[in-house]
Amino acid sequence: MTTFLSLLQGVLVVSLVLLGVSALLVVVRLLRGPTGLDRLVALDVLVAEFLCGLVAYAALSGDSALVPVVVAISLVGFLGSTTVARFVRRGTGR
Q: Is Membrane one of the keywords UniProt gives this record (predicted)?
């Protein structure tokens, strides 16, 4: 049982490291663009990666107090994405 837990902890640590590397690449896309929509999609992906990191950290530490934080951030991210999509659609003349 302890080998399974240590294996699970190793997988969670590796996933956190990969999420960090991916977040750095997304930040590069966020800064370089080239369009505003590219930046908005990169920001949405960054929020999703942040949420995945929080969930992985909560699983690693065994702390369930982060669950309401994850739910709140995901709702705000969803509302922001849909608002921007409606704004962009309205601006294209459709």
A: yes
Residue-wise pLDDT for 8-56, tens only, equals 888 988 998 999 999 999 999 999 988 878 888 898 999 999 999 999 8
The one-letter amino acid code at 4 reads F
Question: Measured between alpha carbons, how far is 60 from 45 in angstroms, rounded to an integer?
Answer: 22
Q: Which one-letter DSSP state was computed for residue 77?
A: H
Residues 82, 38 contacting (CB under 8 angstroms): no
Place of tokens 């369930």: 64
Round to whole Å and give the CA distance between 88 and 94.
Answer: 10
Peptide bond into 68 cis (omega under 30): no
The amino acid at residue 11 is V
